[in-house]
Design brief:
The chain is α+β, with helices and mostly antiparallel strands and 184 residues long. Strand 6 and strand 7 form a beta hairpin. The chain contains 3 helices and 12 strands; from the N terminus they run ααβββββββββαβββ. The longest helix is centred in the first third of the chain and has 27 residues. The N and C termini lie far apart (69 Å). The protein folds into 2 domains: 32 residues; 137 residues, Umud Fragment, subunit A, CATH 2.10.109.
Length: 184
């Protein structure tokens, strides 16, 4: 303590600036870790939009004060294996009546425009999305295990919104959800 009082004023200011910078850096790191994380895409379920091995940034903060919207690509904990994370697109919202017929998806009786979807959507089925749940599907319909087989996704399983594909660098792109002008 005695040394601190005997330091020159310029030295004291430099030490305080370094400490302030370190504290600010730690705070920024903590905030970024709470709001974002990186995940690796596994499987062909989102092809050709996302591929196995690509790394994506997930905005965990996207749903702190809002709920997912139809067409958004999200990362979530598997309902079958909580240690595994999956990436899919939100198709059905709480309360929606989802019907799959002849390869087409209908929401509350209206055909869903799906320019991102590839492959034939099967099997034919009709389901109602319960409150607090979502109906999820991969873009590559023929290679996706999703709500058609394992059921609805509870809201509490959602980690965040897939925001940016950053690896490999040659495939860098923003992950765009499909925006519907109004919910069906």
């Amino acid at each position: 303590m005695a040394r601190w009082w005997h330091m020159e004023r310029a030295t004291k200011i430099t030490v305080l600036e370094i400490l302030g910078t370190l504290i600010l850096a730690v705070l920024i790191f903590i905030v970024v870790q709470a709001a974002m994380e990186s995940r690796v895409v596994e499987g062909a379920c989102m092809e050709p939009n996302l591929h196995t091995g690509e790394r994506v940034l997930v905005m965990k903060s996207a749903y702190w004060f809002d709920d997912p919207h139809r067409g958004e690509v999200i990362i979530f904990k598997s309902t079958q294996d909580p240690d595994r994370t999956l990436i899919k697109r939100v198709i059905g919202m709480p309360g929606d009546n989802i019907a799959i017929s002849d390869g087409e998806v209908y929401i509350n009786g209206s055909l869903l425009d799906e320019p991102y979807a590839h492959g034939f959507t099967s099997p034919d089925s009709t389901k109602v999305v319960p409150a607090g749940n979502y109906f999820m599907m991969g873009d590559n319909r023929e290679s996706s295990t999703d709500s058609r087989s394992w059921g609805m996704l509870p809201r509490e399983n959602i980690i965040g919104k897939a925001w940016l594909c950053y690896w490999p660098l040659g495939d860098w792109h923003l992950i765009r959800g499909y925006s519907y002008s109004e919910d069906k």
